[in-house]
Amino acid sequence: MTPVHQAYLLQARQMQALSFTAHIPLVCFGIAFPAMILFVEWWYLRTGDELYRTLARRWTRVMAALFAVGVITGTILSFEMGLLWPAFTAKFGSVFGLGFAIEGFSFFLEAIFIGIYAYGWDRLSPRAHFRSGIPIAIAGLTGSLMVIAVNAWMNHPTGFRMVDGRVTDVHPLTALFDNSFLWPELTHMYIAGYIITGFLVAGAYAIGRLRGKWGRYERTALAIPLTIAALASPVQVLVGDWAARDVATAQPVKLAALEGLSKTTKGAPEHLLGWYEDEKVKYGVEIPKLLSLLASRRSTSCASPSS
User: CA torsion, points 32, 34, 35, 40, in degrees to nearest 10?
Assistant: First the structure.
């Protein structure tokens, strides 16, 4: 491969990274927003208060729009996966392909029931309409589960053997589910979905509050997502610590790259913000010894690419 081709390939993979930054927030809404809408509709069925029905119906329009945008970004990513990593997908597709197949079925199930749910408000009985939303929430969970399982497999490849450079003895279920990285990644992503969705939805109504809109509808619409996000946030601190310590144990090079640590350091500091340049973090706020403490529970331990 010529230097020009390498440069083009690097740029294409950078574009894939940008595609991920656009797609992942939409995945968070796909995980959490259907459950939040169903909660509000369930509260309407329980109390008979039309305010909750109005709120759920308005949120449904947002959910459908975000799903449509997610379809576009997800399709782009699927093409990028095959076009930019052809050798990888050709060699290991039999190992993790089941995960993407189930994710595809989940997507179609979600699309079908979003249509039924969005257009069924005045066409279905209240309870039948509520039940039609349950598959949306389930499909959002299973679809993201499969993608996270593939990502966990890439961090810890299992479920196959390499013989003379060829993949043999493939066990897709083992590859996807018998993986030590799956559960911290899965828990972390699901909780993140509720945090991001909750705060962004609440933020929209907070802006309305600043503009003078503060009736009962606005108070309720802000309180529900804000409460969900506030309850999930402290839990995420514990889950994030769990996930980070797994990375520190199994992939110290990755942790070092994430934290801008180029050399073995005893009592390694943690940086808030900053920019990595010339093998060090610039313009960041340094907290002494915190990285070593978080990685190994001892502030005097070594944190490094080689530890």
Answer: 120
